[in-house]
Amino acid sequence: MAPRSRRAAVTRPGAVLLPLVAALGACGAQPGGVKVYQPPAGSNEVLQGPIAGAPGHSLVVGDLAMPAGAIIPRHRHAGAEFLYVIGGSAVLSREGQPDMTLQAGQGIRIPPGTVHWGHAGPQGMRAVSSWVVVEGHPLREAVSE
Hints:
Jelly Rolls, disordered N terminus
């Protein structure tokens, strides 16, 4: 069987996202004193590419590193967001829904167009997030109160 191309891996977002989440999750434990990459604070895009099975859409994966209490302003995405917390915690607020605290090991899918915001918990937050980006739309759109 021929090796799969890089583009083929992007055709199934899970084929890219699951190994990345597993790798970043394993980093938190630091077995045997292995040093772990520490990205700059904020939302760091680490991978992106077209989704062959969904023309006009691409996948962006981010490594989120937020210090304690950092504010995530109100915004929305034209496509779905998938968030998996690998360290610390965060409070997620969504318009018309109760606030939700996400701890390390918990994740959520935020539907397209959902206005959401939040803040990092008292220990800060490290998370992997992936966004389905719709062609012609920005990754995120700020939403005023």
